[in-house]
Amino acid sequence: MLRKIECFIQPSKLDKIKDALIEAGVDGMSVSEVEGFGRQRGRLNGEEPSSEVKFRPKTKLEIVVDEEIVDEVTTLIVKLARTGKIGAGKVFVIPVEDAIRIRTSEAGKAAIY
Hints:
alpha+beta; single chain; about 30% strand; Alpha-Beta Plaits
């Protein structure tokens, strides 16, 4: 089965993670610049609590891989994205029922490899 790894990371971590994922055999990914907040409502370490919600810049990665390498890929992302501070990011793993390469109509694993 295929899995989609969707993660939100600090923008400064993108290049290191991208290079490591390519080296680990990931054949493709999508990247988007997004803004968001989590449990701390956008407050950084040391900021006083307030009712104001602040959106923080994040980079969103979307990667579809075979389930056999999901653990390897997610472990790599977490290791390289970790900052030890609030707002380092999140990783989500989502089942993918199917994938179809539009150009050739290949489906399943053949569509992503």
